[in-house]
Specification:
The protein is an all-alpha fold. The protein contains ten helices and two strands.
């Protein structure tokens, strides 16, 4: 393949990825196989491909491309920063590098942190807070988020509770009030957490 042909392939792959990133959830899901089939060209684009993504953000398109590269082109990760490409922060100096690496490698069963976080929330809230408690409440209202929000105090009279001042940061809060999940982008993140096996298996909360 000459340089011009390689450039054409690279441009076509880059256009495909940009279209993938700009698509809605349904179209993205339907494009996964096509994107995966382009792994060789994605690899050839190199690290600059990720300039279009925000390391402070939570766009799963970047995470999935990293997973594809880890699976099929592990040599991409000779630049070790891509093992922990997303920036993570902790107020209590928790190091999330091992967790992020396990998730990039799709070792989901080894990623115990979600269950641990849920256990600690439940333990230190008299059994009233935690993802598994939220899942239990969601199940009790027929898996309808619009009915759960007011029960856990995230909506009142149809309006979202304002962060942070209008939330109740104590055990006086309604059951399931914490932990908080940003709902600005819809319920996708919340739903994926509550349906995660680490959460659904606790208290028999399979949704």
């Amino acid at each position: 393949m000459n340089n011009k042909e390689q450039d054409n392939y690279s441009n076509a792959t880059l256009d495909l990825i940009k279209k993938f990133v700009d698509s809605n959830q349904r179209k993205r899901i339907n494009s996964l196989t096509q994107i995966e089939s382009e792994v060789e060209n994605i690899f050839n684009l190199g690290p600059s491909l990720f300039d279009m993504f925000d390391r402070e953000g939570d766009d799963w398109a970047a995470g999935w491309i990293l997973q594809v590269l880890k699976k099929f082109k592990p040599e991409f990760f000779e630049n070790s920063k891509f093992n922990n490409w997303f920036n993570t922060y902790s107020d209590i100096d928790i190091n999330y590098e091992d967790l992020q690496l396990m998730l990039v490698e799709q070792k989901f069963e080894d990623a115990k942190d979600l269950e641990t976080i849920d256990r600690l929330w439940t333990i230190y809230s008299t059994g009233r807070f935690g993802f598994s408690i939220q899942a239990k409440i969601l199940k009790s209202v027929g898996k309808k988020y619009e009915l759960m929000w007011p029960k856990i105090g995230w909506k009142k009279e149809g309006l979202w509770t304002r962060y942070p001042g209008s939330f109740c940061w104590s055990l006086d809060a309604p059951d399931g009030h914490m932990p908080l999940i940003n709902q600005l982008r819809g319920v996708r993140l919340m739903d994926s957490i509550l349906r995660h096996p680490a959460i659904s298996k606790r208290h028999n909360n399979i949704l």
